[in-house]
Amino acid sequence: MLGELSRKDIQEILARHVTGCLGCHARGLTYVVPISYVYDGASAIYFHSLDGLKIQMMRENPHVCFEVDTVEDPANWQSVIAWGTFEELTGEAAARGLELLLNRLLPFITGETTTPAPGPSACANIRKLKTEVLLCRLNLSEMTGRFEKRDHPQKKIG
User: Fold this and answer.
1) Per-residue model confidence as pLDDT tens digits over 85-130
2) Which of 6, 38, 56, 134 is deepest in the core (most CB within 10 A)?
3) Is the pLDDT of residue 131 over 80?
4) Contact 64/86 with Cβ under 8 angstroms?
5) Which residue has the higher pLDDT, 10 or 126?
6) Given its phi and psi angles, is residue 117 left (phi above 0), alpha (psi -120 to 50 degrees) or beta?
7) Which residue has the higher pLDDT, 50 or 109?
8) Quick one: residue 30, left, alpha or beta (phi over 0 = left, psi -120 to 50 = alpha)?
9) What confidence tier does 158 reach under pLDDT thresholds 50, 70, 90?
10) In terms of DSSP H, where are the helices of 17-157?
């Protein structure tokens, strides 16, 4: 069965995942790249990046597309696509974006002896990096979602 995801389902999928694919277009070139992200639960995706091709392209053309999917097999999947605009964050907005990212992503970074703790000290450590990490937001204007679910025949008992 094919179908459309509800707004609630779309938001749950965006909130559940931490990686998705960002699509941007500039200079006649379309570029799609995976990113780690956090969804704010309403209308924005936050991510970090170094200054590279995707940032340069989004500065030229801030209109972007973002995609997340869950695939069990070719007949059981969910896919969310969102469109919006790119924004580089500075000051308090960047600090808030960094806090959201760290609180969401740090639990996935674990070792045998340590799990980094989110919070102000983690933000301070990121700020000490010699490379300049950019904090970015995708302001989402439209979201859509689709799914396919294979109907499983019921097993006969006896």
Assistant:
1) 999 999 999 988 988 988 888 776 665 544 555 555 555 555 544 4
2) 38
3) no
4) yes
5) 10
6) beta
7) 50
8) beta
9) very low
10) 53-60, 91-105, 120-127
Band of pLDDT at residue 77, cut at 50, 70 and 90: very high
Specify which residues 36 forms β-bridges with. 19
Structure tokens of 66? 């973002």
Residue entry with tokens 């779309």: 10
Helices (H) and strands (E) in the chain, counts: 4, 8
In this structure, CATH architecture of domain 2-149: Roll (2.30)
- The C-alpha atoms of residue 106 and residue 85 are separated, in whole angstroms, by 26
Domain spans in the chain, listed from the N-terminal domain onward: 2-149
Give the C-alpha separation, 38 to 45, whole Å: 6
Tokens 């997340």 belong to residue: 68
Report the candidate in 42, 49, 51 with the shortest Cα–Cα distance to residue 82.
42
